[in-house]
Structure formats: structure tokens, C-alpha cells
Amino acid sequence: MLNIDKPEGMTSHDVVQTIRKKLNTSKVGHLGTLDPMATGVLPVSVGKATRLAQFVSSSPKEYEGELRFGFSTNTYDREGVPTTEERPFQGNLDEAVRSLTGSIEQVPPPFSAKKIGGIPAYKLARRNRFVEMSASRVEIETFEILSLQPPLLRFRVVCSPGTYIRSLAHDLGQRMGCGAHLTALRRTRSGDFQIRDAITLDKVSAGTLIPIDRVLEALPRIEVSEAEETKVVHGNYFRAEGDAQLARIFNRKGQFLAVASIENGWVRPRVVLTSINSE
Q1: Which residues does residue 6 pair with via DSSP β-bridges, in sequence order?
Q2: What confidence tens digit (pLDDT) does each residue in 155-172 have?
Q3: Domain 61-190, second-level architecture
Q4: Percent of the chain predicted with pLDDT > 90
Q5: What are residue 68's DSSP bridge partners?
Q6: Which residue ranges make up each domain of the chain?
Q7: d(Cα 190, Cα 63) in Å, to the nearest integer?
Q8: Across all residues in the chain, what is the average pLDDT?
Q9: Exposed, middle or buried, 18 (CB in 10 Å: 0-12/13-18/19+)?
Q10: d(CA 270, CA 257)
Q11: What is the 3-state secondary structure (H, E, C) of 58-106?
Q12: 8-state DSSP, 199
């Protein structure tokens, strides 16, 4: 795994392509898209870790950003076209922020990667084919005002995966009766990945890779015998004590073999790493 500090102006796919070239491997994927305008924590999986990325926690997400009151845009950020006239904001800001905290229904931006009938919404929007987006329930654990210098507001958000901060900015503008759009965004946390540990793309090398077993070290560790190892690499069940939704399986040489679940005393391999020393 890599903890990348994504620069502004690049898509998450651009980051993946850059790392593929640097490490000379096609097996690279990112965990959680960041818009080109956004910067900050972008976890990236490399080699066989791409198969284990599903087990890496991406919750909670944490962001710091800035929004501008006064008008909305079609993309809900500064890169879009204004959709309302300039108006001063009015009303109770603290109350509006509280109304967008907790468990809320949120509609994704029309220009987003959210798929409609298998097609990303932004592709439909670029063809002027705007469709009604369905709301999703998201959790906003924290929505904190850091500073207010009208028309700009700096904020901090802690939320569940799947939350659109652009939509949060847009919805706050609607509640304040003037419209708003996102002007800057930085992700400071994604699950166990923190901005203080992130590296820039120019620092990426084999030496900066984080072993996947270290990323998953919150999971229980089970060491197996040679006979059990044979069963694991073939994806077969074997007996073990206890229950665990997920556990890491190692052989006696300390090699990470698989991620498995333990149900009613049976270990069931979920993803097997059969060739430890290769990608």
C-alpha cells in the first residue's frame, strides 16, 4: 500500500497511472476517489494488495475545506458555471450546519462519478442530459466551522465513505438562502491513513511501500501448520478456535497467506495469496 498526498489538478486515475510507471507494474488501484480540485490522502494498493484492498477500512473520512457563499454552480465547486445570481447569505449559520450533521439524506452532485444505468453521472451531465439523482444516507459525524470571513467559510468534516463534500457545501448554501460552492478541499484522513504520514508522488519507490499485513494489523493473526497451509493455498476450510469476521493467516515462516473468516470453529479463506514472493 501507499499513502499518497494527491496534488491538485490530477485525477485519482492520473495518480494510479503515475505509480504504475514508477513501480513498473499494472497492478495498482486507489481506494476512494478524490476530485481533481481536491488534495490530500489517497490510499493506493499495489500488486497483490489490490486483491486485499476490499478489507482495508476507509472509515471515517476527514476533510478540511473552504466554501464560498453567494451563488451555486452546476458542479457544486469553483470549476463550474454559476446557476444562481449573487446574493448575501442570511439566517442562522450554526443552525444550518447542525441540520447537516448526523445521519442525513444526501443527493450526489450532477457532475460526479455516481453511476446512472452504468454510466457516470458526469458523462451524462457533459452531454446536457441531467437526470434525477437518488439520495443516499450518509453519516456526518462532525461539521465544524473553523473560520468565517464572508463570503468565505473554512470548515472541517468527519464523515462516512460515500459522502460528497461538494453536496454538503451546496446544501448549506441552499439552507442559507444564497447558494454556495466548494472552493478548496483537502482530505486529511481515510480510515487508518493520515495526512501526516502521506508522501508526495515524487517520493514513491519500492522502499515507501507499506506491507499489506501492517495495514491490516487490526485483524487477528493466525499461524498455521504446514498441513493447514496446504489447505489455505487451495482455498479449503480447516478447523480453528473461536469466531472472527476477518483474520490474517500466516505460515510458520511469517509469510502472509490469506485473509479468512472464522465461523463456528471453521476457517474459510476469503482471499488467498498463493505466491508470496511475487506480485
Answers
A1: 40
A2: 999 999 999 999 999 999
A3: 2-Layer Sandwich (3.30)
A4: 77
A5: 152, 181
A6: 2-58+192-213, 61-190, 219-272
A7: 9
A8: 90
A9: middle
A10: 11
A11: CCCEEEEEEEEECCCECCCECCCCECCCCCCCCCCHHHHHHHCCEEEEE
A12: B
CB 32 within 8 A of CB 61: yes
| Dihedral sign, Cα of residue 118, residue 124, residue 129, residue 134 | positive
At residue 117, the pLDDT reads 58
User: Can 35 be counted among the known catalytic residues?
Assistant: yes
Distance of CA 227 to the CA centre of its chain: 38
Domain 2-58+192-213, what architecture? 2-Layer Sandwich (3.30)
- Ranges of beta strands (E only) in 136-220 are 136-149, 152-159, 180-190, 193-194
Q: Of 5, 14, 35, 243, which one is the catalytic site residue?
A: 35
pTM for the structure as a whole: 0.88
Distance of CA 4 to the CA centre of its chain: 12
User: What pLDDT is stored for residue 123 in this prediction?
Assistant: 54
Q: Give 117 or 9, the one with higher predicted confidence.
A: 9
Assess contact for 68 and 173: CB atoms under 8 A. Answer: no
Domains 61-190 and 219-272 share a fold: no
CB-based contact 110:121 (threshold 8 Å) = yes
Longest dimension (CA), the chain: 72
CATH code given to domain 219-272: 2.30.130.10
DSSP, collapsed to helix, strand or coil, labels residue 113 as coil
Can you say whether the dihedral through the CA atoms of 93, 95, 101, 107 is positive or negative?
Answer: negative
